[in-house]
Amino acid sequence: MTQKKTESASEAPVRYDCSKCPGYCCSYPRIEVKAKDVARLAKHFGITPAQAERRFTRLYAKDERILKHQKDTVYETICRFFDTDERRCTIYEARPTVCRGYPDGPKCGYYDFLKFERKHQGDPDFIPSA
Q1: How far apart are CA 58 and CA 82, in angstroms?
Q2: pLDDT value of position 9
Q3: Are 77 and 29 in contact (CB under 8 A)?
Q4: b/e map of 54-75 (b: 16 or more CB within 10 Å)?
Q5: What is the pLDDT of residue 6?
Q6: What are the residue boundaries of the structural domains of the chain, listed by start?
Q7: 64-67 sheet: strands from edge to edge
Q8: Nearest CA to 128 among 25, 15, 11, 116?
Q9: C-alpha distances in angstroms, 39 versus 46, 58, 87?
Q10: Would you call 92 helix, strand, or coil by DSSP?
Q11: Cβ atoms of 83 and 92 closer than 8 Å
């Protein structure tokens, strides 16, 4: 996911850079999608909402639909729309509402952690693992 948030005069400056992250937020097991998100995906791919729902999502609970995942070498699984080679979102303009709002502020806790670890490991590409 490429960080494209803009700063207004009343907002604090953004203190993270998604282009330097391996996609942590995209590895969340539950990336919720609402009907309007499915419609946005359908329009993006030129298919019907029903086709988009079947192809890209799965039912998690009776009232919660989530994006399907794919295998990933960094986080085990990751959003099906994440390019695992480039470590970027492939549907950024059509991404779900929950993705559009993340991290909901000028800071990202994971990015802060990642910067700290990379500095102390002396490796600008270090990715902490379990």
Answers
A1: 17
A2: 47
A3: yes
A4: eebbeeeeeeebbbebeebeeb
A5: 47
A6: 26-121
A7: 32-33, 64-67, 57-61
A8: 116
A9: 10, 15, 25
A10: helix
A11: no
Burial of 18 (0-12, 13-18, 19+ CB in 10 A): buried
Contact 99, 25 (CB under 8 A): yes
21: tokens are 């992250």
Dihedral in degrees, nearest 10, Cα atoms 17, 21, 27, 33: 20
Q: What is the dihedral of CA 101, 124, 73, 110, to 10 degrees?
A: -30
Strand runs labelled E in 9-98: 32-33, 57-61, 64-67, 69-72, 76-79, 82-83, 88-89
Q: Which two tokens stand for residue 45?
A: 């791919």
Residue 2 has a pLDDT of 43
* 98 CB-near residues (< 8 Å, 6+ apart): 31, 32, 33
Q: Length of the chain, please?
A: 130
Contact 77, 84 (CB under 8 A): no
What would the pLDDT profile of 16-34 be if each residue is shown by its tens digit? 888 889 999 999 999 999 9
